[in-house]
Amino acid sequence: MSEKRVYTFGNGKAEGRADMRNLLGGKGANLAEMNLVGVPVPPGFTITTDVCTEYYEKGKDAVVALLKDDVERSMKLIEDTIGKKFGDPSNPLLVSVRSGARASMPGMMDTILNLGLNDEVVEGLAKKTDNPHFAWDSYRRFVQMYGDVVLGMKPVNKDDVDPFEAIIEQVKSQRGIKLDYELNVEELQQLVKLFKEAIKKQTGSDFPSDPVEQLWGAICAVFGSWMNKRAILYRKLNGIPDDWGTAVSVMAMVYGNMGETSATGVCFSRDAATGENIFNGEWLKNAQGEDVVSGVRTPQQITLEGSRRWAELQGVSEEERKSKYPSLEEEMPEVYKQLNEIQDKLEKHYHDMQDMEFTVQEGKLWFLQTRNGKRTGTAMVKIAMDLLKEGEIDEKTAIERCEPNKLDELLHPIFDKEALKHTHTLTHGLPASPGAATGQIVFFADDAAKWHADGHKVVMVRIETSPEDLAGMSAAEGILTARGGMTSHAAVVARGMGKCCVSGAGNIHVDYKKRTVEIHGQVFHEGDYISLNGSTGQVYEGEVKTRPAEVSGYFAELMDLCDKYTKLVVRTNADTPHDAEVAKSFGAVGIGLCRTEHMFFEAEKIKAMREMILADTTEDREKALAKLLPLQKKDFVGILKCMNGLPVNIRLLDPPLHEFVPHDEKGQKIMAEEMGVSIQKIKERVASLEEHNPMLGLRGCRLGIKFPEITKMQTKAILGAAIELKKQGLDPKPEIMVPLVGTYKELKLQKEVINKAAKEVFAEEGMELPFKVGTMIEIPRAALTADKIAEYAEYFSFGTNDLTQMTFGYSRDDINSFLPSYLSNKILDVDPFQVLDQEGVGQLIKSAVEKGHKTRPDLKCGICGEHGGEPSSVKFCHRAGLDYVSCSPFRVPIARLAAAQAAVEE
Ligand code: PEP
Ligand code: MG
């Protein structure tokens, strides 16, 4: 806990720095840093994230008492720097109060602007600025924001009407105007009066007129907003711990709404969607920050080039663009020049793409924020590789700049070019976040979540989105909005989530009541299919076929770079040549787990398998197995051929036999007919296979020990397949893996069966071939006795699915019945079946690796449980000294990046 609670900044000086983001939040740290770099920033101060923790421990009053002196001192400093006085009608200082966590959480917490206004101060401000409209507009915005955020007037349910918005609508309709900024001074005064009455009516208290009281209310409300529902959800989605807390930054207000020489905007030093090195952003003349992102007014482009591109996409003529939507570059060339210089300076200073907010007050440019910009997976890779080429960062930094899980976006399918030729383009909007999305239309966030839970793919269509829509956006395949630009809420959040988004499609008309959207006269209802191309902004009718993505261009360069540093290699879990092929194209260098049981679920094979299960004698069983052998061999030929020259680790039959027989009457009847036996016999056999704990029953090597002929058949099929390929001049590298071993004796016995079968097949084929025998380590006892097991195993593959199940004693199939309570009670931070439990399960892995190596120094160790594709688990595997991880094909690039990061971090 830091002793110092408040850090001031202003006029080129600051008590904080960029590397203090844990304490000052990203915003507070960068406001300090910008001062130190010489960027114009209004003076202010930041209250630390530690105080947020104190707020939740000690309560509001205690925290106010602790902060009082520091805040008074800091407010005085702002007053002196800027030459204005808080609460003084003759020369008033107004401030903004903003949240800022360690990791950026855009729009999730609260902000209060224009604080310090009351009935006297507003008059003073009007006089001082000679602009009563500006003063009263600021005042009505302040009362509204303060009412919503601090006094709890914001409606909780989507169907409830915001009391303030209702009042604004009422006043506007009385006067027959449409837009907020058309309200005149008397109407703004009327609004303030009505707002205050509404507050009194709903809360029972008067609106606080004392600026100091306002300030404390706002500071505490921002701390309070750390625990609002949407912030909690956002943290959950992004893996941000609840105990980090938010900082609070208080800063002198500057105004972008003081007339024609004032403006406000948001800009990026590179394109956050594509990663292209193009300065871009949006601005509005005579407006405040929220006007740009709220989607109420159409924001204009900052650069001329961007403006022309925008106009083309929107179908706006050059003439109309110039008169109605000119760029900042054209409108305020001097300001633009300075802005462009500073954005470049900030990017070079931070060596990363910056997302910046600025305000122009009567011709003077102020920066309000800079942060490393959120970006799509595509942009993430391109920017990292470009910065590397530009010499801004080194190779290791480029690897560390990429977030493994975000690569997932690059692996998502894209629209099939052929299919697109036959698709009708309905309209287009802005390409806010790339990707291909196809799904059924829904209009509300909770419907999106519900439909998604029921197994539907949905596209959420909204006039605009707000932070309340987060859960729905996360559940949807894509988001389409009628309003809002590239920096609208929908666009920013979708890019952060890697979700496809088309925003600002002006030609769509959404009717929430009827649950329809009309596009050029065509009406679509909830449930109709629609498709979005987030890379071009196109909106298509119906479902459009997609095809798999490929690793090429920058992505391939990044992967090559990873290979330069990585120590762990990445294999894949694949049971079919198709999956193996996909994984190979993503860079897998072998198969770490081929689950042979998955090969039995085809009609012919399941029949032979059932005959084997039904057999009463070894002889009958061998007959059935003889039928299975050529079928299995064919499978192995396919997979070994595809992975020619690379190791293929094939696991002997693992699951309990009851998984192969039907449990319903109808299925049993069909099986009886097929097998030519009575249904009674089938029923008896099914009953005899039933177990109380099938996961702990007759499965894994226990099957091979009870029925060695199964192990023999599988060995002959594997090695027979390999020999067949070898005879064709190929280079198959089979490995045979024994599952669910708990004692070395099990492995010893199975190995004898394997070696005997190998001899037989070599003699039959007249050819020998090297192969390895290894085991899964997935039972705690196996991990604990790994030294003995290593005497018989040439390699270990950690089956962390079962190892987690048996170490925790949680059923891997039923954890969801109690996981939510375990998460909310903080017994677990994450699902241990997704993220490896390094503390417990990890200990078993580490010690097994050590023990195994003592017995057999060249023992190869890998992991093939689900964790093999999860970044933090992959990094653990690196540290534990494993040789490889194996994961599903689409996780291969993610694991490659995580493995390289682990090596770089070391
Ligand atoms: C494991 O247990 O981690 C494993 C890979 O095997 P399976 O999931 O097939 O039980
Ligand atoms: Mg297992």
From TrEMBL:
Gene3D superfamilies: 1.20.80.30, ATP-grasp fold, A domain, ATP-grasp fold, B domain, Phosphoenolpyruvate-binding domains, Phosphohistidine domain, Pyruvate Phosphate Dikinase, domain 2. Residues 22-390 form the Pyruvate phosphate dikinase AMP/ATP-binding domain. Mg(2+) binds at E778, D802. Residues 553-903 form the PEP-utilising enzyme C-terminal domain. It catalyses: pyruvate + phosphate + ATP = phosphoenolpyruvate + AMP + diphosphate + H(+). It holds the Pfam family PEP-utilizers_C. One of its GO terms (molecular function) is kinase activity. Substrate binds at R595, R651, E778, G799, T800, N801, D802. Its EC number is 2.7.9.1. NCBIfam families: pyru_phos_dikin. Catalyzes the reversible phosphorylation of pyruvate and phosphate. This is Pyruvate, phosphate dikinase. It comes from Prevotella lacticifex. The lineage of its organism: Bacteria, Pseudomonadati, Bacteroidota, Bacteroidia, Bacteroidales.
